[in-house]
Amino acid sequence: MTYVHFNVRFLFLFLIISFNCLAQKVDSDGVGKSDKPTISVLPLVYYTPETKWVFGAGAVGTFKLANKDTYESLVTVGVAYSLRNQILTYASWRVFTPSNKDLFIGEIGWYRYVYYFYGVGNEVSESDQESYSAKYPRVQFDYARKIVSDLYLGIR
Length: 156
Prior knowledge:
single chain, 156 residues, 7-stranded antiparallel sheet, two-stranded antiparallel ribbon, 13% helix
């Protein structure tokens, strides 16, 4: 996982947690409960040395496929453009089937990105910098089946 992917995911995770904490309904016993689908559209702005400033937008949707005992599923989509003419697009999901029997996790994305290489070892300097660009798709799919309570076994 590259530094930018980490930044984008960390930012979305932080914003998702923030929005879910603000929008969460509380049951009479004080336990948070969210049975209705939600969609949040979020702006995306960050800076890294590889990208300079990045601007974009993303959306996060949460839903349940069945009753209140089914875990909440999550879908995110996003697109970002950097001042170094880089493009990052992706859609990811985590979907639980009724009664949490199956779990589907995945990501589809397309990236146009510039990477920097400084060499190998501890004696590299800023002047050793070489850049190279890459255009590539990213596809990831995971499947897991519930074996016992809170234990899943699957493939990637």
